Amino acid sequence: MKLQVIYCNHQTARLDVRERLAFTSDDQLAEAYTQFRGSFPGSEAVVLSTCNRVELYTAQDDEGGAPGHVELAEFFSRFHGIPIEEFFGDLLTHNGPDAVRHLFRVCSSIDSMVLGEPQIVSQVKNAYRRSEENQACGPLTNALFQGAIRVSKRVRSETRLAEGRVSIASVAVGEFARGIFDRFDDKTVLVIGAGEMAEETLRYLQDDGVREVLVINRDPQRAEVLAREWGGSGYGMEQLHDLLGRADVVVSATGADQPIVDAEMFRRARKGNSDQPVFVLDLGAPRDISPDVAEIDDNVFLYDVDDLQATCERNRKLRSREIERALGIIDEESDRFMQEVYHRATGPIVKRLREQWLEVSEQELERLRTKLGHLEEEDMGQVEQTIQRIVNKLLHPPLETLRNEAREGTPHGLLEALRRLFHIHD
Amino acid sequence: MANVTVFCFLASYSVALVVELLRLQKQSPTRFLGGYAFAAAGFLAHTLFLWNQGRASELPPLLSSSRDWTLVLAWLVVGFYLFVITFDRQVSIGVFLLPLVLALVAASYFVVSTPNDALLTARHGWTMLHAASLAIGMAGVLAGIVLSLMYLLQHRRLRHKYSGADGLRLPSLERLSRINWWSVMVSVPLLTLGMGSGLVLKMIGSAESLSLADPVIVVNGISWLSLTGVFGWMLLTPRATGKQVAWRTLLACAFLLLTVVSLLVLPQIGLESGHGGVVLHDDCLICRGDTL
User: What residues of chain B lie within 8 A of the CB of A303, using their CB?
Assistant: First the structure.
């Protein structure tokens, strides 16, 4: 069994690298899964692509046929049309228990830019769902992702990682927007995109007193629905230019694969308004706002997800004690998960062995019933129980040994020995 | 009580500044309370000192000597500092204000400390108006300098995506800009009133004619005009950016402060103008040097 992850994230790769490797739409992801299945038919796969990370989890029963680090990097290169040497150094890989531990850390938000942020759990769930829809996952990845979600719940309930300001949006609003504005009840907020991240941002902004909310989306109806929820107005993308000029706070979190606001557009929108500070938060990956928008004038304060890094590091330090506790839980759960995985690998042999022995005992019991027909039903029951106990006692030592061996890894040698000793066939 | 010296509150303010600097490293209730206690103790000693000085000269501290006037100015700044941190424990305003306070207290050693005999015969109403408006106006100028510096620093940090992990907690740009605007709006009319009342004092108190070519008058006039220029520009340009306001306020206020401090200190090193010393006129409290 081979379980591995190949990935780049906000700690290992710059935003521009992550942008190029990201899978930004469902269609792109579906195509990626199709190509992956074509290239590695025996392998399960789950892609986790968010603004902070691009990760590919693979699992395969047959270690020999599983793709390696380089083959997966070549897959990225082929799919995105990027020469491998341009990103190979930014990719990391983990195998076996380390891969499991990595996903558990990611899902528990230990690995997130903002420690304890809740969005990552739904992003992990969505990633698995997409894989399932594209028939790319299997029993191993299923167990892995179910385990990750279970561990994240445990971490959140047993530690204080999720307390306080934890999401990217809340840090951005709390640390940066409040550095610019004293109050928000007289500010106009423009939200571009109507996804989960946009909703999260709006919630924090409204907590800070924002009243006027404008929501823009490619689908105006979806914009309307979200805007109505927050007492604002929804618009289609064609209104972007006009609304940009009105906004004091711009939050963009779309899934666009290239910037939707460039410097020229922003300059024109701000014409006659350049004396007013504007806080622009680009939560998209790839970026929604061209970086040169920040150079238009001194009153444009543009931040993207990478800019939040320093603040997140500070949060991380403050919560280091909670991290220790969370890591303890993750280690414990990773070990347990791996034992289950190894144990699962012994399952078919154990099942066959037990079935074989029970079959023999059943045959012998049948003969006994024929020969000792005078026995009362109660006496025959006692005999059956005795034989059952004998079978169990005889099975116990080899199964116990197998279980102990499986704690350290799949006991291939022992399984082979059992197959040969007891003539067990798949 | 009678033994309180300048050194007492100078030392207290120095410790308060050190604690403020330590708070940049780590915010904690103990450090806040420590800094607050030292600043408040210094403020109390400062108040007692000025009280004693006033009683000794039988004049309000604002009028007793240039040294006391400088100390009253420092006292106003400390009062402002204590007021701010009472309501906002997080803000790092002490890092900016306390060095100014220490500079003013230290500068007081270099200015005239003897009471002015002329004031004993002068009209107290006019002299009090003159000294008080200049002192409060100058406190506004100092606030303008500090707020402009804080604005520019905060602006720089935000533009460079730096959120204050260094422990320096600054108010928002919007708040700094608003308070800065008011500091100029308040200080310029008060300074104008102080200078105008000084002229009135001169006219009613001396037969000597006032020379507009006097370098002291020229320097004072230019610095006042520059600040008044900023005042007018701010009134006429409501759409000015916060950064523009901060830079202009900083330059004009710093120029005025430099002028005033120079005029206070220069007489002590023997530099005099043809204006009866380095003074705007003989009765001007902040510029009269040793002629008071």
Answer: 161
Residue A307 Cα, gap to closest chain B Cα (Å): 6
- Min Cα distance A295 → chain B (Å) is 10
Q: Are A105 and A111 in contact (CB under 8 A)?
A: yes
Enumerate the residues of chain A whose CB falls inside 8 A of the CB of residue B154. 179
pLDDT in tens, A288-316: 899 999 888 888 999 988 787 667 666 66
Task: List the domain boundaries for chain B.
Answer: 1-115, 126-292
CA–CA min distance A206, chain B (Å): 18
Q: pLDDT grade, residue B91 (50/70/90)?
A: confident
**How many beta-carbon pairs under 8 angstroms link A with B?**
54
Q: Closest-CA residue in chain B for A299?
A: B241
Q: Answer for the pair A336, A157: CB distance below 8 angstroms, yes or no.
A: no
Q: Report ipTM (2 d.p.).
A: 0.77
The helix/strand/coil state of A134 is coil
Does residue B289 register a pLDDT over 50? no
Residue type, A165: R
pLDDT in tens, A377-407: 888 888 888 988 998 888 888 888 887 777 7
- According to DSSP, residue A25 is labeled S
Can you tell me whether residue B271 is helix, strand or coil? coil
Output the pLDDT for position A326. 92
Residue in B with minimal Cα distance to A184: B174
pLDDT, residue A61, reads 79
The residues of A carrying an active-site annotation are 51
String of b and e for A412-421 (b: at least 16 CB within 10 Å)? eebbeebeee
Chain A residue nearest residue B168, CA to CA: A179
What is the value of pTM for the model shown? Answer: 0.63
Answer yes or no: are the C-beta atoms of A329 and A348 closer than 8 Å.
no
Cβ within 8 Å, pair A175-B164:
yes
Return the exposure string of A121-145: e unless at least 16 CB atoms fall within 10 Å of the residue's CB, then b: bebbeebbebbeebebbbebbbbbb
Domain ranges of chain A: 2-162, 168-313, 343-422
Percent of chain A with pLDDT over 70: 95
Give the fold, CATH level 3, of A2-162: Beta Polymerase; domain 2 (3.30.460)
CATH fold for the domain made of A168-313:
Rossmann fold (3.40.50)
